[in-house]
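A brief tutorial aside. Many learners find it easier to grasp structure tokens once they have seen a single protein encoded end to end. The record that follows does exactly this for Glycerol kinase. Read the sequence first, then the structure, and try to relate runs of similar tokens to stretches of the chain.
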Amino acid sequence: MAEQYILSIDEGTTSTRAILFDHNGKEVASAQKEIPQYFPEPGWVEHDAHQIWIAVQTTIANAFINSGIWPSQIAAIGITNQRETTVVWDKDTGNPIYHAIVWQPRQTTKLAEKLKKEGYSEKNQAKNRLNY
């Protein structure tokens, strides 16, 4: 049986990285690709979701090519991402409706303030307390 590896995908704010680790946790190979950021208005930061997907595929492929490891040798995959970055996908086409809204912009500030004034902040906190 061929040696097994872990594939780690790190989707960051400015780049995508794929890293292959052996069973001892030693890095065997890695690949990285920058992701362009778009600033359509002051305080807005966006990514093209297609470019993110292509960067993930490219870095994984390059890590395999650089290491000589086959996809069948992957025992597990770990993914870390930007967490609060948001993409809305069209359920019929599978395409993004708009760019990914990255975690640090302020384009939803007015909506967030409106929801706070309407009492949703307290409702959200109360609901979350019930879940613990």
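Self-check: The chain has a mean pLDDT of 89. If you spotted this yourself, you are ready for the next section.
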